[in-house]
Fold these 2 entries.
Entry 1:
Amino acid sequence: MSAEPQTASQVTPRRRSPWRERFREDWLVFSRNPLGRAGLVLLSVFGVMALLSFLPPLIDPMYHPMTGVDPQVLYSEGPSVRHWLGTDFMGRDILSQLLAGTRVAFMVGVSAAFMSIVLGVSIGMVAGYAGGVLDTLLMRLAEIIMVLPTLLVVLMLSALFGKLNIWTIVLLIALFRWPGVSRVIRAQTLSLKSRPFIDAARVAGASHARIVFRHIMPNVLPLAFLYMTFRVTAAIVIEAALAFLGFGDPSTVSWGMMLQWVWKTGHMFQAPYWLFPPGLCISLITLSFYLLGRAMDEVLDPRLREENGTV
Amino acid sequence: MDHPPQPATILELRGIGKQYRSKGRARQGGGQTVVALNNVTLDFRAGEIFGLVGESGSGKTTCGRLIVGLEKADQGELLLEGRSYGTLKGESLREYRRQVQIIFQDPYQSLNPQLSILDSVAEPLVTNRVGDNKERLEKVLTTLKAVGLSPPEDYAFRFPHQLSGGQRQRVAIARAMILGPKVLVADEPTSMLDASYSAQIFDILLEVRQRLATTIILITHSLAAARYLCDRIAVIYRGNLMETGPADAVISDPRHPYTQALIDATPKFGDCGPIKRYGTLVSPERPASGSAGCAFFRRCGLAHLGRCARQAPELTPLTLGHLVACHYASQTPVPETGQACRLGGM
Amino acid sequence: MALLEVENLSIGYRTKKGVLQAVDNVSFSVEAGRSLGLVGESGCGKTTIGMALMGLLPRNGRVTAGTMRLMGRDMLGLSREQWRELRWKEIAMIFQAAMNALNPVQRVDQQIAEAILTHNPGLSRGEAHSQVEGLYQLVGLPLERLRDYPHQYSGGMKQRAIIAMALACNPKIIVADEPTTALDVIVQDQILQETKALQKEFNIGIIFISHDISIVAEVCHHIAIMYAGQMVETGTTDEVFRDAKHPYTRALLGSFPALGGERRPLRPIPGEPPLLVGQLMGCRFCDRCPVHGKACKLEPPQRRRFSDTHFALCDHCD
């Protein structure tokens, strides 16, 4: 709100993408937030670990997390130069398992969260915008799914259909985790729907699809991303629990799977070098996404407030 | 502010009625029918600025929303250049909506915060498939310039939150005008703005009319603003038209007691001609008279208990073009000429 | 002696971008039974002054210079406890968002009685309630609506209830911040007339804050025009309206449409007010001023005196 002659000289005609500019502004706020920084650092450590997971099998086939068995080791051994974190009961390298687990955690967490967000956002926007019978139906459905205990239902399903593929698990988590998101998005859509700029779009001739995707979606997406970070942690924890209980995908090495092996072979209290790394990793990755979400919340909140014109 | 004799009628409201059902439980006064508009008949002439004046809840905003198709009338017809809106479908409906645009009261709420100014202003072009990207940009820049946002390149790539209220309202005008509509509804365009901005907006509206011969329907609570901008005005109270006619006639010689009360209540300053006080309000209000009588009965000091409580007055011509809905309109009210000027805490 | 005296008051807000000079070197005084209108556009500092007078500045705001004296007593050095004593009893405020100033879950008479009891601990509940009844009659509210909840009141009734609350403890001064902005013209007019009558009856000093110069013109004896944190012109209502000196005052008067007299074209003020962050040189209105000279942008303008009451902050007015 500076005087006109000033703005004219400040902003020479330039066509920098407004989105990029906005992203830069948000990034500046975000990177100044200590929570966000901590989360980001932690998350990049895990990112590096996931990338490194491809290395060990290339060095020596015995470092393969699933099939690589050290011929010199017959039972679980503590850390050594050959195996930095030790080996499991049949001589597989724990470090390479841990790295592979990171990759799986990312895969499961991000894809399950992404799917549930896509579902939740679309259903929430449609229900909120359409209203009426459709809204009622969708929201009742959401409530029904919401009160089902995810873990229990997935356990029952896997008992029914035998061992589940990791992607099936991801899909199931997504299917059970959209209702919370959709309720929030629906509420947001309802409040946006009554804002004059939606009326303005209608008068400008915008179709319903255009109003939903062009006008409502960009306004709910920040919130959706925020929820995604929280959903990632939920997905990782559920997958770990499933695997620990013995209902995981037997062909993948996830952290939950590692914990199950510790438990099943009776090393729970004998081999801390085997128990702690996967346990710690689950806690830390959860923490890192949580921190990220909190920091995002702090960036978004004032901006949302400012854009709602209350400042 | 003169216009050619007998310009064509561009938009007509014929007997428009609209009711709402109030929300809430019946016990707390919900579920009742609230009349927003009652048998409103108006015609708007090509190229004029028409003022729809009333207090909050008078139905003036509903009227504007009906005209742009954001609401549907329960009774009556809306005609644009002789064609009824209710019968339009498909392409001709689209064509109608192109011709009738609106700017809203709150410039902080009427622009999508996530869209750049360019995207917001270009929206009508996109939805109506006008031109390609390059032409659209060109058009947006010239339109922004036309509403006084210059250089337009400075503003096109900003977001609403980077602009002041006055600038946002100009953007809203640019968006409404970009398709060159025949009718522009301006719903309290300045009530959220400071005086210096609202004068700017008034000037832009006058210029739009001058340059493009757009019919502007100004919805406002301020008689002073209506007097400044409008050729003709209509005063509306609880969904009923009370008085309509040339702006000068209605304001300098109001015949309806409600219009007189409005003029009494408007703060006057600066120009210190003789100030009249009509004093037409009664206090306290009378008990309700039932739905049959005059809408203004409860507050009217001139009302005759028998006739006004039972029979709603029709809008009848008093002089050419000056219509009043009052049984006693022809009995000239006697204004009290007060002090020369109501300046200062007297 | 003046009831309230404010001298060279400056108020700054700490913001992310630096200190925002919301109020700069402002002086005025209010006498008993008189009213002063603070007029200006949003962001000119008028509400900040009101908040400072009530000791209610937000956390990041601070009085950086100047004095405020209420009946000779310095207000700036008061402790929190002393402020609480002063507020409502000596100086009351009618807030901008009247609709939100009432507690929605408490009956209106209860709220007003509460305010009376807080400041007069000696009173019994019954006495407080009979005082509330007196106040209702005073502000023209029907007694049968005493036991209602705020949401059952119309906008005008809420505003009257707020005025009753402000009068509850017989304050010497009332700060009214846009008290009628959300109301319809007829109700606004009634409330303004009643406010004037009450002021006369109780000899209260009123500071009337508004963006609408026409309302202030009706109510106030004195007017102070604010622009960008500075008081650019002060005088009696008559002086300011008939013989405006500062170019901003003239421009402001010229940008309001009038109901009577000749229809004259409005003269909008071009441009936008300046940002108040950082060092501000020279006259703040300079960029939008039709009569500015070369030196205006560099040298701060001098306060010029036209009569005992009429001052303007401009080097080029005559």
Entry 2:
Amino acid sequence: MTNSAADRIRDHIIPVATIVVAIIAIWYVGAIAMNAPFQRDLDRRGNTTSTTMEFVAKTLSQPKPILPAPHQVAQNLFDNTVMRSVTSNRSLVYHSWVTLSSTLAGFAFGTVLGILIAIGIVHVTALERSLMPWIIASQMVPVLAIAPMVIVVLSAVNITGLLPKALISTYLSFFPVAVGMVKGLRSPELIQLDLMRTYNAGTLATLLKLRLPASVPFLFASMKVAVAASLVGAIVGELPTGAVAGLGSKLLAGSYYSQTIDIWAALVAGSVLAALLVAAVGIASKLVARAMGAQTGGRAA
Amino acid sequence: MGSLSEMPVADTSTRPAPPARDDQTFSVVSARDLSLTFDTNDGPVHALSHVDLDVKRGDFVSFIGPSGCGKTTFLRVIADLEQATSGQISVNGMTPEEARKARSYGYVFQAPALYPWRTIEKNIALPLEIMNYTASERQARIKRTLDLVNLADFGKKYPWQLSGGMQQRASIARALAFDADLLLMDEPFGALDEIVRDHLNEQLLKLWQETQKTICFVTHSIPEAVYLSTRIVVMSPRPGRVTDVIESTLPKERPLDIRETPEFLEIAHRVREGLRAGHSYDE
């Protein structure tokens, strides 16, 4: 076990840590470079002269920097998560939860819709010809163009809150699931389909006992893409609504008031959320694979 | 067979009326002037050409021939996985489609085709689930067929945990699980090594004697065909046709070393001659 732990550190932790350190270093250099002109301007007007070290320190501690330093973002994240009650509307946990709830709702709708579309396409040839071009076209339209219209149209019929945002997530997430599941439902080999035919198995039995189980790996692969797309959809859905809560509204408010540190903190919160969601799908995928008898160790015979 | 001889020779449109099912002379499979042509981009391929053949109840019939001779195609026509272009064929006195819908045969493919997400037990349960057997009946049949193929201790394993020979035995168990008295086997041991194959041949013979099934067995191994069969159908390609049908004179009880006897070698020689005759124009 110690051997595998050492392998794990060498194979996973060191490469990732190296990249993180490199990114942070570049980020600091960038922050100094980008904030320096404003700081120089400020110093000139205030008639202050400072040593290089003092100057660098000041570029990294501006209240509204062009590019906030990592530690400023980290400080903001810490203040707005750990140090605040989760019900406070300044808490990033609260805003993340608002975004997460519509992400999950949209992801669930999108996955179900994608599976249903794929089942239809695999069984009805006419559907493949008629539906597929529309499905592909739907993904050509920028979500930033669609999102405000969905929100506005739905609010005109008094549907507001979670549902319109979830629908935008659905709009983005059904596509990878549909495409992946069409491939997955068609993945059984001819011999396996012939076998069902020799049993005189109907379409439903073939779907339930062969096509669906065979498509599970394809489903999880496309769900990983879909859950990340759902999050993007939910955040974009919060932008045009004047939403009072959610990571999207946090980003929008931050840009209105030039609260760059808030923006970056919300961005980091968003990417942490995305990573957690993708990881959760990955874990679910492994658990399901194990329950379905996936090869785990050496051969027994 | 009276009904056949009474038929006018020119009239091929009517099928012979099936005699009583328990009759040993009942033709489980009966093909008359059967042809099948595949249309390909390189022109028509005559996979089967004017095949006349009867498989009697309880027979073990092997189909042997080089690739392209239509032996697998013939098996697939019996199973209604392909449809003949012309001629007649009856399976258990029905059309192949009716026979398939009546689930009157079990099919063993070249590859085991076990579903990897199901344990061996669950794989055997698959046809039983589709055919709506009760849970207790399923359990009883799983146990019985696992015993029959000597896999009693492996029911809870997944296919990847079994060797190739064991997987193929599991797929035979799956084909035996429901009450089909016709077993169609398409080169089931083709991918296995000689020693495993010998062992499985021995087991298959025992199984055939125990279950009284009718077996159609496709192979390209002469010893396998001679060792297993009561009749050997020699086929040749382009167009796929039957060139010889050899009745085995070997006794029903066949230890493995029967393959050293002059009688066995004599039959094997005749099969080889038949194969060569079908091939000669080609070389």
